[in-house]
Amino acid sequence: MADNSNRITEAWIDPRSGFCESNSTFYSKRSPIPLPPNESLDIATFISSRPHLGKTAFIDAATGRRLTFSDVWEAVDSLSSSLSSMGVRKGHVILILSPNSVLFPIVCLSVMSLGAVVTTTNPLNTKAEIAKQIADSKPFLAFTIPQLLPKLVDSDVRIILIGDDSGQKIGNGFGVKILATLEELIRRSPSETRIKDRVTQNDTATLLYSSGTTGASKGVLSSHRNLVAMVQTIISRFKIDGPDEIVFICTVPMFHIYGLVAFATGLLAAGATVVVLPKFEMSDLLSAISKYRVTDFPLVPPILVGMMNNADEIKSKYDLRSLRFVLSGGAPLSKEVIEGFVEKFPEVTILQGYGLTESAAIGASTDSLEESRKYGTAGLLSPNMEAKIVDPDSSEALPVNRTGELWLRGPTIMKGYFNNPEATAATLDPNGWLRTGDLCYIDEDGFIFVVDRLKELIKYKGYQVPPAELEALLLTHPEIEDAAVIPFPDREAGQYPMAYVVRKAGSRLSENAVMDFVAKEVAPYKRIRRVAFIASVPKNASGKILRKDLISMATSRL
Questions:
Q1: Is residue 53 a contact partner of residue 271, using CB atoms and an 8 Å limit?
Q2: pLDDT digits 0-9 by tens, 368-403
């Protein structure tokens, strides 16, 4: 773990950029955050030790149900006791397949308090995609809602149902093994004789799957220490020390690192109230902001652009005067978007953030409008974080204003990839540096700018789509000889997958047929939405697809 505690006093670190010439390392300009020294500490215990002042922790925007902080911790205590009696032990993997819910954090915290490991999956994923994750992670049991039971058929995973008892009949109809309902387990009195293994900060807390350029999803192992450091960073960024209540609204998915770390753990520790939307609908979102006097709104760029473009209509229908901050993540915002939003919503401050699943969503941030007006920036390095800019060809560490791959090191960096030592070695160097796959530079003021991606993930409405996965699928089509998938720019979605396809001789395969073929096999956000046919896919001497050439070809007529 990197220790930056004394580095501010070192005269050889440029106070303006944070760059140290002697070791070619950039250090965070944010004040360092102390981390708990006690080794025997799990993330749930750490969060529960934080003062909460009796405020409301979660509000279900759909039903109006409220959970106080006391409600949350009583439920966590009961559920962890019930899980222990069902045989859940340290190291067991527990799958959560669910949309956003006020109960989602309770499941996560209960599981992690026992030293068991949380793994989540996207409810939009297909049965086959979920089956792959189950085969890899081998969950001891799963939490899901009645509507998603069909996606667990044939998985042989025992299930705890999030929902009422009527779901039991649905489960029996599918032949799945339902052990109990979540509400039933929460209502039980905690057992004083429960078995609770000793959990250390170095033990694994989460196993979240991050799409890679090789096509196969990789399980990211984050420790309790990683999550504690993440929570401390969030607490320092959103201090709740005044009389005014801070109310966040949760629209980003809790199964994703962005939603999981912020809404299931970080904001709970910070003492904020979180309004939870089960699914995203713009009208429901705006109504909830108005009804519950939301102050802080984490979002992805397409939602911010949508608010900007429809500001007059929105302000005529909804009272958004409580809103103070929007926090954008997923991609840097342009000058046009920032200034357009500020013009329409002058009372709202835009903040931005940069992080990866592999860094527990921590990396860099802008913490004021002034910082966000460094147009295109991902922000300053987060507290306790170090960075290098490394030339991808020579491996030389570069100074200020030079472009190379961003490497990060700090207490939130993952332990590694689950059962994948090759991928771990390719991503984490022996000194703890995480190769992010992003081409960046850091300017003379210490701000990070993302120029391009070495990793070739497509960002569709905040979701990550690996091109190689779609290419492998396309190559299974009997009429396709070769294929390449690229990101195509889109104002609403950010990017969407476009396929270049080489048809086999004699084939009359159509664009719609290609899109329909893919749509049947993948989650909606991964669907191919544009197809072009070419004679051959351009590749370099080693056979790597020249995506930049294809991207230039696709966008030349825009």
A1: yes
A2: 999 999 998 999 999 999 999 999 878 999 999 999
Q: What does the pLDDT average to over 197-208?
A: 96
Q: What is the C-alpha separation between 301 and 119, in angstroms, rounded?
A: 26
**Which residues contact residue 193 at a Cβ distance below 8 angstroms, ignoring those fewer than 6 apart?**
none
Residue 257 has a pLDDT of: 85
Other beta carbons within 10 Å of 510: 12
Compute the C-alpha angle 502/507/511, nearest 5°: 65
Q: Quick one: which of 59, 395, 46, 381 has its CA closest to 225?
A: 46
Name the CA radius of gyration of the chain, rounded: 24
pTM: 0.84
Q: Does domain 7-30+366-453 have CATH number 2.30.38.10?
A: yes
- Give the right CATH number for 463-555 from 3.90.1300.10, 3.30.470.20, 3.30.300.30, 3.40.50.720: 3.30.300.30
* SS3 state of residue 521: coil
pLDDT mean across residues, the chain:
89
For tokens 């196993």, the residue is: 207
Per-residue model confidence as pLDDT tens digits over 11-53: 589 999 999 999 999 999 999 999 999 899 999 999 999 887 6
Residue 541 exposed, middle or buried by CB count within 10 Å (0-12, 13-18, 19+): exposed
